[in-house]
Amino acid sequence: MITAADEALLRRAIAIAARAIDLGDAPYGSLLAGPDGTILAEAHNTVRRDNDISAHPELKLSRWAARELDGHTAARTTLYTSCEPCGMCAGGIVRSGLGRVVYALSTAQLVELNPESGAWPTTAQAGPALFDEARVPIVDYYRR
Question: With b meaning 16 or more CB within 10 Å and e meaning fewer, what string describes 34-44?
């Protein structure tokens, strides 16, 4: 359920996305809010400027939260973002322990507006393989 307070913070994320264009960056913006709605951090997409494919605002805020917040606090935050997080960002969100995500545009809506957004090729993968060898460092690490 999205509340009026969520909508206000989501509008802020959309404004961050709009401001990114003025800065020469792609139009994606996010913010991280505490349980009382206080904005803890904001970010926008800087993929082109930083020449860094991981410079999505959702991932930048997930990394910030993992560094700056304890697990209990992170679990009570909400990430507001102008577009639905991609797979890379979704993984960062889960790993950082953020509690909730509220987004404006879905991925399908984004692709409708900008078909190139959905034009990423798939990468061939092979595996699993070499279980007996690959398990050794994992087992050694977790036995410590």
Answer: eeeeeebbbbb
